[in-house]
Specification:
single chain, 160 residues, 79% helix
Length: 160
């Protein structure tokens, strides 16, 4: 019996990393930061500091991941280090705060921006976007990978 493995290529993997790095914050929170902090060098320094802190966090996760080489991420780490209940709670927090909330925020920002161009309510655009992208990603890995690569490079083009 042969085993069929489904994998993504390096281009799609790179676009996933780029998409995670260029999040909604670039399009939304930067404006709020510039309202409060008038000096652009201070804003750049804050973004660099945030990048360094994220890198330190990634190094910490890499170290813990090498100590507990099992799949499961935070759940495995916190279960082994503290208690299974802590891992369970972290899983739920990650699901709600780490995944669902950013998707909702990105859709709301897209709805707010797009509603200025088309005459559709921002909430309808937001819900429609989440449903449409969910449907696209539900077909198969190839369709999902192509869409992810296209969407990421479109986002980069918008920034440029």
């Amino acid at each position: 019996m042969s085993v069929i493995t489904k994998k993504i290529g390096w281009k799609v993997a790179a676009s996933l990393v780029v998409a995670n790095m260029i999040g909604t914050g670039v399009f939304t929170s930067l404006g709020f930061q510039l309202l409060d902090v008038q000096n652009s060098w201070s804003v750049a320094a804050l973004w660099i500091l945030g990048g360094v802190m994220a890198l330190v966090g990634a190094f910490c996760y890499a170290e813990v991941g090498s100590a507990f080489p099992k799949s499961g991420g935070e759940y495995v780490f916190l279960t082994k280090i503290y208690h299974p209940f802590v891992g369970y709670l972290a899983g739920w927090v990650s699901l709600i705060v780490g995944f669902a909330a950013p998707v909702a925020l990105a859709a709301m920002a897209l709805g707010a921006y797009t509603s200025n161009v088309v005459s559709i309510a921002p909430s309808v655009l937001a819900v429609g976007t989440v449903i449409l992208i969910s449907v696209i990603h539900s077909f198969n890995l190839r369709v999902s990978s192509r869409f992810q690569a296209f969407a990421t490079w479109f986002k980069v083009l918008l920034l440029l």
